[in-house]
Every structure is written in structure tokens, then in C-alpha cells.
Amino acid sequence: MLAIEEAISHHCTTAWGKLRKQELVVHYLSVFPRTNRFDEQLKAYSRSISFRLINPTDDIRQLTAFAKQALKRLYKEGIAYQKSGIMLAELTPKSPVQMDLFNQPSDTALVKSEKLMTLIESIHKRYGARSIRLAAEGFQKQWTMKREMKSPCYTTRWTELPVAKA
Hints:
Shape: globular
Pfam families: DUF4113, IMS_C
Protein name: UmuC
Strand order of the largest sheet: 2-1-3
Domain DUF4113: 114-164
Domain DNA polymerase Y-family little finger: 3-101
Largest sheet: 3 strands, antiparallel
Number of strands: 3
Distance between the termini: 52 Å
Oligomer: single chain
CATH class: Alpha Beta
CATH architecture: 2-Layer Sandwich
Strand content: 15-25%
Order of helices and strands: HEEHEH
GO biological process, one term: DNA repair
């Protein structure tokens, strides 16, 4: 389960960067894992779960925590997962946000969260996009795309052009 959790966390980080760039918050989060639907020897498994966040957020820690909780509900032991992802829905501008009446985070918590997210963004701008990240993303990235069977990029990379020999 560790590899798929790392992949989901990575997807959350990518989505978070886009949210922050566009100054949006998210209300709905969907998570999906699936197997290789083309492998006839394995039983296909594809499920998703969607839920509404109590309060809209653009906090990477909250997005990752909610996504991992959702994944735990969907995960089944012994299944060879091939792909996973997240989807964000009901994106709204950050400034006029309607919080839940009975479950509002404190103003100090919101200020601390915003300061931390701004700090992470400034570190990314100064040192590179993946210079600081959540530990949930992992460091090995065993889940990345397999490139053994990748076709050459003849039309986009000079180094991969075939060489004609006489």
C-alpha cells in the first residue's frame, strides 16, 4: 500500500500547486485506484470515492490526509494496482469562502496554515518545485511510469533520431 499512498500524495502535491497558483480552494475530493484493465489474467478492479470537505481548503496537509483516508477505504490487499489519481471539484476563489457554521477552524489555525503554505511556495520558487515536500510522497518513487517499453521520440528529440549507416 505504501507505493500507492506515495502516488496519491504526489498527485495531491501537484494539484495543490495548481490550486495555489490560481488562488482557489477545493470543496470536493475524489480518489481512485485501479488495476490494468487490459491484463486478461488479472481481475479488473476500479473504484473511486468522493466526499465533500467540511471546510474548503488549499492546505496540502489536509488534502493529503483526506486522500489517504479515502484510499484506505478503497484499498484491497493482494491486488496489483496500476494507476491511481485524485480529482478536485467545486473549485472556488479563495477570498470569499463560506465555512461550516458548526465546524469552523480558528482564525489562528487559518493564519498559521496560510503562512506555512506561503513559505512552502516561496521555497519552491527559490530552490525548485520538489525541493521541499511532505514525507508522505516518499523518496524512492517505485510507482512512476515504467519506461522499458517506451517508444522513441523521433519527432521531438534530436538525440533519439535514428542514424542511417551505409
